[in-house]
């Protein structure tokens, strides 16, 4: 009940903040890794995590968004703390955003199945407009061919609660842009709230169902996700070996996402997501996303007896 009261207060604060400007980057595989918008999610014991995904949005459209996301994080049990680093590059037409961040998260664990984490990311946000990339059909002297750049400090904050059957989190991004009326360069403050229900007790399956709310200014988007992860029983105390997963998401912006993941080895995963819009103008322009994730065991002896922690993190 103490954790729940803390969550209610944080959720209220996150939802009541006003915002402006452009949208955060869109990454469909965030259901596997939430660190780019909730720094508290890196508090994951026993492994060094390396994560990257590459997204090509709206194929066949010139200047469509191209996104690269790279993350690394590790947890120190004696400090109850996780440290991470990330870099996001988002290219849209003549505009490019670069967002390097350092992340810290503190984990309070009541027992092996229940924890509450708080996280903070700090770095810079840089957006560049390269007018020389304009390629008009006819010359227009009104077009600006100069290169304009703005660099600002950037902060994200979040918290996440985990139990045996539940993951819940709230977070806010680009906190220093809350009162920024200049929409030309910076991404605006966003608020996120999500709940993921999970069942990892079945012998051959892991089941997940999630709902997420993304809010920016007066715009709110809901996303619903469900997935199944298939496992192969091993008969060992570490539990079954995870093999592959399939999932589907629906976003209230009239967009479906199909996700697949494959455990190439025990500690290396490959994922793919395809977005399909049912908006008439974009039905033939899907988005493709590839995810690579690697984990390096830090405490092999402990992992041999920690059945639940052998599963890939969600």
Please render the helix and strand layout as text.
Blueprint: H1 2-15, E1 47-56, E2 66-76, E3 81-92, E4 95-111, E5 114-130, E6 147-162, E7 166-173, E8 190-199, E9 205-216, E10 219-232, E11 241-251, E12 255-265, E13 268-277, E14 287-297, H2 300-303
Antiparallel strand pairs: 1-2, 1-14, 2-3, 3-4, 4-5, 5-6, 6-7, 7-8, 8-9, 9-10, 10-11, 11-12, 12-13, 13-14
Provide structural commentary.
The chain has helices at residues 2-15, 300-303; strands spanning 47-56, 66-76, 81-92, 95-111, 114-130, 147-162, 166-173, 190-199, 205-216, 219-232, 241-251, 255-265, 268-277, 287-297. The protein has 314 residues and is mostly beta strands. The chain has one domain (2-134, 141-310): Porin, CATH 2.40.160. The chain has a 14-stranded antiparallel barrel with strand order 1-2-3-4-5-6-7-8-9-10-11-12-13-14. A hairpin with a 5-residue loop joins strand 8 and strand 9 (205-216). The longest helix has 14 residues, at 2-15. 35% of the residues are buried.
Low-confidence stretches: 1-22, 300-310
| Order of strands, widest sheet | 1-2-3-4-5-6-7-8-9-10-11-12-13-14
Q: Output the CATH class name.
A: Mainly Beta
Q: Quick one: CATH superfamily?
A: monomeric porin ompg
What is the CATH T-level topology? Porin
Shape: globular
- SS-based class: mainly beta
* Order of secondary-structure elements: HEEEEEEEEEEEEEEH
* Quantity of strands, as a count: 14
Q: Total number of helical segments?
A: 2
Overall tally of domains? 1
Q: What is the CATH architecture descriptor?
A: Beta Barrel
Largest sheet: 14 strands, antiparallel, barrel
